[in-house]
Write a structure and sequence with these properties.
Helix content is 0%, strand content 50%. The chain contains no helices and 14 strands. The strands form 4 sheets. The chain has a 5-stranded mixed sheet, with no helix packed on it. A 4-stranded mixed sheet has the order 2-1-4-7, with no helix packed on it. Strands 10-14-13 form a 3-stranded mixed sheet, with no helix packed on it. It is globular.
Length: 157
């Protein structure tokens, strides 16, 4: 179990980050940096649902997820535009892409893997990959946002 905490912050009436990854039993620390009351409502299918109000300037709320689950919706019942998603995994081999779509998953032992990319609007794509000892692979995922606009994400695994 990792000892590092993962933070989900309320900042400017938004969840920051919008998507995050965490391991089972790892501490999720929820901060309210806004000068208003917020509500955090997790609606998992495999873990316990919780719904907690958090006034401004109070200590962080701490939660843990006991089972792996992709992707748990987090919402604010008082501010319905505020949403986030949490991917809970048994292992540390995951990444959230940067603004330009790049990401890196490091430290994979040699073996056969399925790499999955998920987007809240466009769903998921997966690729099977074989990783050898000290080998680096580049995997690109193509996301269609419209016929005229699209982007490509590249990674190293």
């Amino acid at each position: 179990m990792p000892t590092a905490e993962v933070t989900l912050e309320r900042k400017g009436c938004r969840f920051v980050p919008h998507v995050l990854g965490i391991q089972t039993r790892q501490i999720l620390k929820i901060l309210n940096s806004d000068p208003t009351v917020h509500n955090t409502h997790a609606t998992p299918k495999l873990n316990y649902e919780w719904n907690q109000t958090q006034p401004a300037e109070v200590p962080a709320v701490e939660k843990r997820f006991l089972r792996p689950e992709l992707f748990i919706p987090i919402k604010d019942n008082q501010h319905p535009w505020q949403k986030a998603y949490i991917g809970v995994l048994l292992h540390p081999f995951f990444a959230v892409s940067s603004r330009d779509g790049s990401y890196k998953i490091g430290g994979l032992p040699p073996g056969e893997y399925t790499i999955v990319a998920w987007h809240e609007k466009y769903g998921e794509q997966s690729f099977d990959v074989s990783v050898g000892r000290k080998e680096q692979k580049n995997i690109g995922f193509y996301v269609h946002s419209s016929p005229k606009l699209n982007s490509t994400s590249r990674t190293s695994a």
